[in-house]
Amino acid sequence: xxxxxxxQVIDLLVDITGEEEIGDxxxxxLFEEGVLDSLGAIExxxxxxxxxxxxxxxxxLEREEMNTVNLIIERVQERL
Length: 80
Hints:
By secondary structure, the protein is mostly helical. The protein has helices at about 1-15, 40-50, 70-80.
């Protein structure tokens, strides 16, 4: 199940960012690298709610708690 969640989150990030190799760099800071911006982050939160039923308010977490692929996956798994 966890591997499936990982892939679903990566697929969402590829759709939002257009970065096909995003899954290969799971620990880079997506904001510092310019891969994800504020608008993309909101789009991600909406997509996570649609895909997993996981609700994360933009004000609920600091950016550093959700700025890498692995951290995004962790936040999803915590809420499932």
